[in-house]
Amino acid sequence: MELKTAFPRSHEHRELEWACAIHGGAGAIPRTASEETVKQYREGLSGILADGIEMLSAGAAAIEVVEALVIAFEENELFNAGRGAVYTSDARHELDAAIMDGLTGRSGSVAGVRRVRNPVRLARAVLDSNDHMFYAGEGADRFAEARGLERVENRYFDTAHRYRALCEAQGQNTVLLDHDQGYGTVGAVVRDRAGNLAAATSTGGMTNKAPGRVGDTPLIGAGTYAANGLAAVSATGRGEAFMRHMVAYDLCARMRYCGTALEDAAHDIVMSEMEAGDGGIIAVDHAGTIVMPFNSPGMYRAAADSSGNSVVAIWDPPRPTSDTQ
Ligand code: ASP
Fold first, then answer.
1. Domains in the chain, please, with CATH?
2. What's the predicted TM-score (pTM) here?
3. In 135-271, which ranges are continuous DSSP H helix?
């Protein structure tokens, strides 16, 4: 599979004011999905991208934008984060999220959250607390309460389509890796007008995962990372593979220590080091270059920059019926 660079490389020498990419998970619906289903996902992505364009054009800070865009995903039950999150093997929901500010190097992570409506808001509260960096389980829910964040019953996250996926997974006695049958995650990476970078990621994990299982999403350096001067990265796919390869940090380390360009580093990690089907990443560098490589059949993704480029896509190459890609 080829590198899915968002925009033609001819832009790499142009000075961009801002750039933004989002993903809604690497396990995309099959190409055979109905026009109506494809439309719903595309509209979900386009709406969230439009929010990002509006905020960044108005001069919003990268950290504010990634949080707002991931909250929008968490509120959309099509995607596996917040409402619409997948089920654990005991038919509950345990949510993970992280956010990182490339300007300060500060981050906040939460894992195994059960009663917080927007886990990325909680991750942001952890970042802002400037104390601990990572809260898990009951303590994370209690921290949310102390911070006055909106709390919900665990069943608030229930949806019929995710419950069907759980029944299928349990029928096959597997932890499903394919989003249509079980995985996904959402994320945003931004380079703002001031040149600052930020990344945020949120997920329900994988359908039929064991209670207590935590994936790459909240692990800084695995599923989420941002460092000014280098890149902001958000991953989606088989969490264990992203943890093993420390993907998000490895991308930045290659740029920092070897001077490798974002495109080359991302391509090598996703297409050569990882196994086909593992998933993908979105990343933006200090110059506003965006890459969105994946080695799974599809990845919900969208990107835009201040030069007027924008793209919304699910598969690669596009489905023949052109504008439904
Ligand atoms: N990476 C997530 C996890 O392993 C799942 C996903 O991205 O689909 O929890």
1. 19-310 (3.60.20.30)
2. 0.94
3. 137-146, 160-171, 239-245, 247-258, 262-267
